[in-house]
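Ticket #4471: structure export looks truncated?
Reporter: QA, pipeline team
Priority: medium

Steps to reproduce: submit the single chain below to the structure queue and open the exported record.
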Amino acid sequence: MIFTASMILGIAGAALGFAGLTAAASARRAVRGWQTRCLSLESSFAALRRDMELTASAAEQAGRRAELAEQECSNLADRIELIELRGATQGGAQSFDQAIDSARRGADAGKLAQQFGLSRGEAELVSRLHGRAGRFTAG
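Actual output as written to the record:
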């Protein structure tokens, strides 16, 4: 069989066409793979964004709670200072010492208020800080 120039060119063209189709199919598969990967990354970024928003919200709430706790501690410190000042000006330091001893022996806030002339709030504070139920146990 004798090949003519047009036959050789035809075969070469067909081979080149087949190679082009193969390359196009391979490129199409690669593009689909990259599209799938991009969609997966976008989904991951969306989930990460939601997690970051939840974390920021939780941190904000924790900050607010810390501020409230700080205010409560400050208020408690002010109340203790007021009680100490009141006791010092009224000669009541000894009354507080006696009330503390009585609380340690189990007296409740009502009895402390009545017996030592403390306000109800003062008596409850002494009872909570020094009473048997309020004691911290080393464990």
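Status: closed, not a bug. The export was complete when the record was re-opened. Leaving a note from the reviewer for reference: Residues 66 and 97 are 33 Å apart (CA to CA).
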